[in-house]
Amino acid sequence: MERLVIEGGHRLEGTVQICGAKNAALPLIAASLLSDRPVTLTNVPELADIRSMLTLMEHYGVAVKGPSHAVMTLDAGAAVNKEAPYDMVRRMRASVLVLGPLLARFGHARVSQPGGCAIGARPVDLHLKALAALGATVSLDGGTIDARAPDGGLTGGRIVFGSPSVGATETALVAAVFARGETEILNAARDPEVCDLAACLVAMGAAIEGAGTHRILVRGVTGLKPARHEIIPDRIEAGTYAMAAAITGGHLELTGARLEHLGAVGAVLEAADVQLWPTDRGLMVSGTGRPRGTDITTEPYPGFPTDLQAQFMALMAIADGASMIRETVFENRFMHVPELSRLGANVTLQGTSALVRGVPRLKGAQVMATDLRASVSLVLAGLVAEGETIVNRVYHLDRGYEALDRKLVRCGARIRREAAP
Ligand code: UD1
Question: What pTM did the predictor assign?
Fold first, then answer.
């Protein structure tokens, strides 16, 4: 197992290239199963989660061809319908995204039910509800989700989500591509990743309108065509580096990042005295001394994303003043709190809220990464903590951040990766 050893106190200065979005790439790769024609994706990030999804695609007989990892063609022409095994689904919850395309194309899908997860219960009921609204018979059979379309295939219907779910909206979108007639998805998630999936499906020949709004309409089509699609930049990676710049009082240009995808994050950072402005190449971020204590509540897009909550807490740990951080998307997403406290952060947890009283400085210590975003918040805190911070179990980071340590080192951070003793 590897760990990162960070020597804190070095200001970040330079340029960071933002990769393609992990959360856009995963559903896009899964959606390749829908079509018997090849789909070429560009700007694919090099991440452990992407490799897991590609392994799952190989399980179904999808041919994955280079020229490189960043540009890959997925050809599901000879795909076979099988069960998604528990071992794969357990490792990556996003595997459940094969349910929609398998059901739509083959009329039947079996996927092992995803287990509990470190950041809460994360049920899949909304995914199943969406499939049922299109006429599928959905049952749970010994820990396996079994979804079957009626003879003649799925039919268009009205899907109303009680609360917006990114994954369930994606399942609904993909499942509706071949459904006869029109499907209306109400209270849909509006995230840029949902729009990206819709854009790729449209390039493949699907008829979709309204992605990015609460109401998406899908008109069923009978066949698809080859397509090429460029994945949008990762707004969570961009937001993470923006906070890395801010926490060190540094200055970074995030090439490829798009301010318009950041939703509430831009305004929150400005309120915290972090400067942010668009450039020809992306986004410039400048930290000016200690940030100002600023409250946030995580919400569905375009609200402040839960995937940046832990990083923002690291920033607020050294703020001038206090901040209230409320998590409304996932229960149990405060595992970074005890670890940040080991570095000297002053955080009081009360249910779904954390009161962070900013301190002038943090102090290096050994900490343990628990999930992807929690781990990166510890790295950010380590960048500014006095002395040495050791972040153990960095495999969590590699699931979602391409070359995090190398990118930071290039901008002046002192980080070394080593095998844990
Ligand atoms: C996606 C992102 C994840 C991000 C999350 C919220 C991917 C691969 N992952 O996850 O990084 O943190 O959006 O922005 O894109 N829910 C249900 N029933 C369901 C599905 C969801 O109750 O069937 C609940 C969840 O428990 C959660 C909320 O809905 O409280 C939002 O979850 P959702 O948007 O579905 O998250 P994911 O798609 O799993």
Answer: 0.96
